[in-house]
Amino acid sequence: MSEQDRNCSGDLSSAQKPPLLWLQTILFSSTLLIALIGVPWYGMTHGFTWQGWLAFVLILGANGMSITAGYHRLWAHNAYKAHWSLKLFFALFGAAATQNSILIWASGHRRHHRHVDDIDQDPYSAKRGLWFSHIGWMLRDYPASAEDFSNARDLQRDKIVMWQHRNYLALVLFMNFAPAVFLGLITGHMLENVLLAGFLRLVVSHHSTFFINSLAHFWGRRPYTDENSARDNDILALFTYGEGYHNYHHIFQNDYRNGVRWWQYDPTKWLIKTASWIGLTWDLKKVPDFKIRRAMLDMQFKRAEQKLSEGKTGMAPQVKEFLEHEYQLFCDTLHNWNQVRQQWLESQRDTISAQTQALQQTLCEHKEQFQKTWKETSLHFQLRELEYALKLQQKRLKQLTLQMA
Ligand SMILES: [Zn+2]
Ligand SMILES: [Zn+2]
Q1: CA of 246 to the centre of ligand 1 (A)
Q2: Which residues cross the membrane (predicted)?
């Protein structure tokens, strides 16, 4: 492109932007406008009932948890396994959250983890700014968001995922309107329920989940890794059902927990754990505590070294010596841990092989016993057959004797 072309094209960056996706743009802006104008207007002119607010909170929670526990930790990361009834619940209320089908959402999210912060390949790269990572990436037809399920073959084999994907639009419409209309018919406050459990719930649900892609990559601390922009943020965790511990999540993405300490606010982790007590979830994946501490110590050493090299500490030689000594201890501990873990794995392997041998032996014994019983039974039948043959012969002879008499 010549200099003249560049000057004539006006705003080059907007000229290069992919086309707007009108359906998404209208959906996000109209629902936002209705929530911002319609809800306060109704509140001032009619007032809301507590039942209306209760329905709003419950459906909002079901939507949010279906995204965090279902779409995110179950399907995108395989952090645990779940009973079909729980998966069906997540598929239905996840559709109500209107963030695309599980298949599209989870495959995009796997790309986000694989290419985190890459401007071209991360669908909601934080490097493209807060607006882009929050909602901008969904408003235009960006190549990074193009459907590509090559990283989601496992999900394509999941019947509930594929059923939801095929019927997504119908499920979105039904799950967004049916609960609100149903509650409206029961309570007699149709407009209140459509506004609270319908529009306001959808808008709050949208933006609280979008915070995980936007704010959780900008605001907070990085105790586990600084290799990417993800942050841990306790305040954000309150609005995102525990997904605010995003720095931890980006380094240990298969852990079913995001808030790894018991006191960290992670209702998604509590839901998955509680469900395991009644058999609705199982195989909950957990990163060993040692690995978590190792990541934290790595970061602490890295930061201390940075400060030292920037000359920010007085007594630099003593600090350096102390740091080197601590680092040596750290390396020794890691070395010992690896050795002990190796021994532990070998011992487990031995136990398993001993158990397998014992099982094989038992099977052999059972087989021998079975063969013996089979042989005895077959001999028994042979004897009965011979006996019967004798009986027949006896009858024949008896008849012959009678004929001869
Ligand atoms: Zn992220
Ligand atoms: Zn994730």
Answers
A1: 6
A2: 20-41, 53-72, 84-106, 168-188
